[in-house]
Amino acid sequence: MKKKIIKTISRVEGHGGISVTFEGKKVKEVRVNIYEGPRLIEQLVLGKAPGEIINIVPRICGICSLSHKLAAINALENALDIKVPMRTKLTRELMLIGEILQSNALHVFYLSLPDFLGYPSVVEMIADYPGEVEAGMTLKGFGYQMNRLLSGRPVHGENPVLGGFGKHPSNKDLLDLKNSAAKLMPLAEKAAGLFGIFDYPAYLDQDTTFIALNPDDGKYGFAGNSIRISNGDEFPVPEYKSVVNERVVPYSFAKRASYLGKPFSVGALARINLFGERLTGKAGQYFSDYYNKRWKKNPLYFCFAQALEIIFCLENIPLLVDRIVGLKVPDVVIPKRQNGIGTGAVEAPRGALYHHYELKDGLASDCDISTPTAQNLDDIERYLFKAADHLIGEPNEKKLEFKLEMIARAFDPCISCSAHMIKIIRK
Amino acid sequence: MEKKKVGIFSFSGCSGEQLMILDCEAQLLDIFSDLEIKTFPMAQSNNRYSELDIALLEGSITTQHQKEELQEIRKASKVLIAMGTCACFGGVQSMLLGKGGWKDRFMKVYENNEGLYREMAAFESQPCSAFVKVDHLIPGCPMDKDQFLHTLSHVLHNTKPHLYPFPVCTECKWKENDCLLNRGLPCLGPLTRGGCGAICPSHNLPCVGCWGPAETPNTTSEFKLLLEKGYSREEIIRKFRNFGGAVIADRLRKILDKIK
């Protein structure tokens, strides 16, 4: 008997579908298909000036637009040998925290919590879990408020520019953020508490490799100049290509990534697995209360990791604000040259994001972007295969579909950010 | 009163408009309880529709499959609304429309896979209006949630939405900002649809045109002004086209040989 499930994954950003093919009592094939039309962004920025590039590339993804902008700025500043002052550097870190806060809150409360609680959407969840839905709304709203204040608007803010900011956020506004953040902690703890009681089915457990940027200051964070791999290897960011090893796979028409020939995971769970021991304060407390060795094996812990990061973000906002407001507002740093090659990376909400540019006479002559969802796809398929293999006897097709979708969604795939992914047409 | 059936659809873009709908915090529950939301891929499972009172579309059209889906949505819907710069004008992915070379760029990204190119049936990005009649535009990159709520409420009550008919400059004047063009910066405010709140000029940054082309701007005058300020023709065309899609391409074609 041959059976096929083909459907669109809902509650993810962008367009993708899973197909699972069973042959007799065996899983023959699992594919994550991408229905995203090609936009060819890497080609569009060729011949553009750095100022235009940083307007264009954030449009890759509405949910992590600032990560794209900051990775691009980082790469272009490296290419042009621009060194920014500490206030600019710290304000950018604060922006990354805002973006991760809103993105994690959206995924944890709106997109994945309905899965764990068994509802088709967040709307159906409201009657039974009004407090949780409101907590999600408030935390996500606060992330957007940070984006608005720091970058100009919730999505595609243009305030961060090469060498600085159009306008640095004022100390008063920053101190307001600090005060708001402290008040939101009980909401964040609510989420972490919930994930502590959920069941994480053991049939999914299998080892994998985790990859994340290692923050330069030896703390937990979302920016760094070297890439840490869970087997202990470490590479400088400009060598990212030997870490992600993008390739074209014949069956999916989508670029994929592997390290030493094997799939790997990036994102909140990778960051917590690699650097969770560095968490302090309340985030550190939750980590030591709930972390166990199964977090390295089961992707459903992704959401728990994101919930811990929400606590980390809220705890770090006041610390960062205190450092920023003590520093003088600097002018924008102007580049002294027009040519160069540079790579930049940040931890986007979904994991390590790399941008690479070559500039000749002030215009881009080469561009390469490697997005986290592309890096996760092989591992998503591998875990789906394991789950399908275990669930093969499930007579209720709807239930089977639901369980498989939940696993894919746990990775928080952001398919609109896939610079390289395109639709499969089956014959 | 019977609940109106509404479908939210997403084509090629960044999903920014769906995010803006989810950001309508105070009104989100009303949207879900007072309307029958048949499709909303980012927010709910079970997305199916047959007949719709209102279809809301984000993203541009880049494959044959999307084009056919768009045509089916049009047939099934009484009112069709394009949300965001990609759906309204084509978005950044339409910046080279008419210039040729799309297949070449496709081949560079997808490693010369000729079979893939044929099977994909993909083409250079076009706005929704290239294939179907669009009843209302909500411009923006991403759209503004207040303008979204304004348009949706009017359409629900069979009245005409009134979005800003003027360019970014008007909002910039309301804020009493110094004109960046006077400072020699390449601001596209005069050419670009208002509604964003002139955010960039308010941050000392020239408008990049991300809300798409205004309805009746003086493109020639802006072009000449930027030439006077020392920008090259190539640079000006590039900047005009980054977010201008098919509309700016057309306008430039009509004026370029008249500008020396």
Describe this structure as you would to a colleague.
Chain A has a 4-stranded mixed sheet. Residues about 1-5 and about 415-425 of chain A have low confidence and may be disordered. In chain A, about 45% of the residues lie in helices and about 15% in strands. Chain A has 13 helices and 14 strands. Chain B is an alpha/beta fold. Chain B contains 12 helices and 7 strands. In chain B, helix 11 (about 235-240) packs antiparallel against helix 12. Chain B starts with a strand and ends in a 5-residue tail after the last helix. The model of chain B has no long low-confidence stretch (mean pLDDT about 90).
Strand content of chain A: 15-25%
- Going by helix content, strand content and strand pairing, the class of chain A is alpha+beta
Fourth-level CATH superfamily of the largest domain in chain B: NADH:ubiquinone oxidoreductase-like, 20kDa subunit
Biggest interface and which pair forms it?
Answer: A-B, 63 and 65 residues
- Topology of chain A as a string of helices (H) and strands (E): EEEHHHHHHEEHEEEHEEEHHHEEEHH
Topology diagram in text:
The complex is a heterodimer of chains A (427) and B (260).
Chain A: E1 2-8, E2 16-23, E3 26-34, H1 41-44, H2 50-56, H3 65-79, H4 86-117, H5 122-125, H6 130-151, E4 160-161, E5 164-165, H7 171-197, E6 209-214, E7 226-229, E8 234-236, H8 240-244, E9 247-248, E10 255-256, E11 264-265, H9 268-275, H10 281-290, H11 302-325, E12 340-348, E13 351-360, E14 363-370, H12 372-390, H13 397-410
Parallel strand pairs in A: 6-11
Antiparallel strand pairs in A: 1-2, 2-3, 4-5, 6-7, 7-8, 9-10, 12-13, 13-14
Helix pairs in contact in A: 2-3, 3-4, 4-6, 4-11, 4-13, 6-7, 7-11, 9-11, 10-11, 12-13
Chain B: E1 4-10, H1 16-22, H2 25-34, E2 35-39, E3 52-58, E4 61-63, H3 64-76, E5 77-83, H4 84-89, H5 102-109, H6 114-120, E6 122-126, E7 136-138, H7 145-156, H8 168-174, H9 199-202, H10 219-228, H11 233-242, H12 245-255
Parallel strand pairs in B: 1-2, 1-3, 3-5, 5-7
Antiparallel strand pairs in B: 4-6
